[in-house]
Amino acid sequence: MRKVKPLSKKWGVSLFPKAPFNFDGTVYNPGHFPAPTEEYRKGKWWQALRFENKAIGIKFEDKGTVDKPQVKLTVFSERPLNSESKNELVKELSYRFEFDKDISGFTQKFKNDKLLGPAVKRWRGMRSKCGYNLYESLMIYVVLQNATVRRTVQMMQAMLENYGEKVKFDNKNLYVVWQPKTINEVGEEELRQLKVGYRAKFFKRISEDIASGTFDEYQLRKLGNEELKEKLLKLYGIGPHSVENLLWEVFHRHDVFGVLPPWEQKIYSRLLFSQKLASEDKILKTIEKRWEQYKRLAAFYVWTDLFWRHKQKPIKWLEKEIRL
DNA sequence: CATCAGGGCCCTG
DNA sequence: CAGGGCCCTGAT
Questions:
Q1: Which runs of consecutive H residues, i.e. helices, occur in A164-261?
Q2: Quick count: other Cβ atoms within 10 Å of Cβ A3?
Q3: How far is the CA of A35 from the C1' of B10 (A)?
Q4: What is the value of pTM for the model shown?
Q5: pLDDT tens digits for A272-295?
Q6: Residue A22, number of CB atoms within 10 A of its CB
Q7: CA A319, CA A65: separation in Å to the nearest integer?
Q8: Using the CA of A324, which nucleotide's C1' is the nearest one?
Q9: Contact A86, A13 (CB under 8 A)
Q10: Looking at strand C, which nucleotides approach a protein CB closer than 7 A?
């Protein structure tokens, strides 16, 4: 079908994240749906992404320990990057993967917390990462809405096959997410043929807004939580739940946790109270009281620890909640 | 076979 | 603020 673009130029550099840093816990999220834009193996991470408007591939390799972190970054591109681009890319990846964030205060404070302690012991140094830019993330949140995992995967695959860019690097074939302008040139009907349903309109409207430059990612990063929420909520098709996820994953706000959808409610009920269903209010209040300004990061630790345990040894009740 | 909710959001009243 | 509708799918 579409041509594969080989990314044959290579450049590498060593990065030194702030300790404690957990490589696998940071780069890979076992709770996320699988996307053909990225690949994980223990100690290694590949991702295709768009940077400065060009398709590139990145590879991270774990070369250190939690207390003496070192990551080898290899960048694959069609043409060689100039030194300014290299610097910018490293800066951007450091933001997206929180390499420079010091979370030692958090891990120290909660190492003996009854609920959080065990997760901190296992995953000390795990961070909030999002390898994608704002637009790419918005597209992902749209396919996640009101759909089961399988359908999300189908929609993403269809969109990538038709509008994404297929690249090859380091023996991996991966997709780079489509661009706003590509979607702007496609009719809503054509999108609907890919069985994305009413989301077609969301794709169109969001792509228009992003292409217009009204939502500059770098400017948004400077905003406070409330202002940022308000702004993102203006995107058509992006509601309270998606905004929460954006603040946590894309904007790395560790202190925002105010929305609890039913699916997550069930899982946190088990995690926090070992009961089938606790009220939303009870869960949110508990999280707030126990973990304060670290509440989102803390919840992420107990949540992700659960999914890792599930990956290693399936947990029956969780299996039932993860609807394929 | 029909019905229904799903890892939400928009719009209306 | 509550509730119906939305695209499509797989589960029941």
A1: 180-184, 188-192, 199-211, 217-220, 225-232, 240-245
A2: 7
A3: 28
A4: 0.96
A5: 999 888 888 899 999 999 999 999
A6: 20
A7: 32
A8: C10
A9: yes
A10: 6-11
